[in-house]
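HUMAN: Ready with one sample?

ASSISTANT:
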Amino acid sequence: MPANAAIYYHPEGFDTSHRQLMGRHAAGEAFLRGYASHGDVRPFYCFARHQEDFADFQQRIAQLSGADRPTVWIPHTRPGELAEPGCLFVPGPTSADLAWQRRHLEPRAYSLCGVTHTIASAAVMDMIGDLMIAPFEPWDALICTSHAVKATVDHVLEHWGAYLDERTGGRARAPLELPVIPLGVDCDRLSGAGQAERWRNTRRAQHGIAADDIVVLFVGRLSYHAKAHPLPMYLGLEAAARRSRHKIHLIQAGWFANAAIEDAFAAAARAHCPSVNAIFLDGRDPEIRETVWFAADIFTSLSDNIQETFGLTPLEAMAAGLPVVVTDWNGYRDTVRDGETGFCVPTVMPPPGLGRDIAFRHAAGIDSYDRYLGHASLCTSVDAEPCAAAYGRLIENKDLRRTMGAAGRRFARDRFDWRVVIAAYQELWQTLAERRQAAAPRARAPAESAHPLRADPFALFAGYPTTRLGTEATIRLVAGRAGRWFTTIRDDPIVSFAPYLFLPPKECEALLSRLEELGACSLETLLQPLPAARRALAQRTVAWLAKLNIVQVSR
């Protein structure tokens, strides 16, 4: 049986119906589809905060797998149950909170495995830094979706480690694995399933595109500051269109964050590629996302933004049989073979040291994250002439389009189909499990030190009260406060808002009955008949009963 993992699940991370559709949503939905189809595990484990989230997980797994598959809910409040699947997969960078949470248990109880999406934000950079100071283990992993991403993570860890060494005189390190495993695509789904020709004819007819016209396609968020600046695409296509006898159409299937950005794109298209028919479609529409590939002859994505890490759409285009023109930029160079499945256009960025003021302004809160991305993008160039040459070669050569499209389809299926990627995930999880099981046992962290910055409040603030409720304390009932008073006050919302903290009502009543029989006695005597596993909870319950003025504590 392949290695299993519980999926850290919240519907938002696996749903592409958002009005603000992000790459992580598409990647999450695609992963879950791939895992449901190719995971070959029983059961599917779901680690979620709420039962309604688990119900959503069950429904999605059934829909995506086409069968009623067994599922198990592991509530967020019971992380110890993650030992059963042996691994927790997080559809994003692994949170330090999860590592600290595990430290309350046994560090070898289970592995933690995350995956990178965008890594440019301050929040994600902090998560990467946490890899060196939170209790991550050698049986944990952060999957990097491209070699470029791994190089960035290595850079952050190297420089953060140097700072920590300088600060502490020690040797800081991140013990977890940083394997490179790409995102996946559903190649069967993108094959057209016998509908490709019909979808092509219908979509092109809707926009008055003739059979001999050439359609270039971009799919993705339409943002000049946070995705791909459109200027080199517009300039390159304009130059290619002026040299060609073909009518060129550019379909941009995506969405705009606001009307100002939409107006800017439309104006830039009119100004910089007037010879090209610019068509904008709402890429959030599921039907458009499924069929638009087949209307195109060429796919392009000239990403120049540091928030991009992998780039799923060129892979989807190759799986659909399209040749691609992309930038030689981070994850694209892992997924596109220059001259074989398409063309990679060079990019230029200033050298290290010239962006310190950009980093400072973002860190100081002067510039928002979007501005930080946009400022870095404005300094990153893509030469329009190589773009024009690549577009021109594909526009004028139908055989080259067909050859590169076929090569891309083979490459996508061989290396990036979810069947292959899920197998790589499970191989990693198996390796982590073997490493975890071979590790020497660890002593469980004392409750008050499992997380030094999230200590037991009764330890952390022990200097606040006059005294503490130790087992040597004398406990007595307050006259007239047992019986009916307890049944009245215990349900008052001002004292009943955290029932998990205390013994359930029947056990409370039994404790009070025993105290009534004994009269004044030490807390140790009162608790003596209880099972050892219940005494700590009962001791805390006595503190609550004292707050309710049912019992009185004295030394």
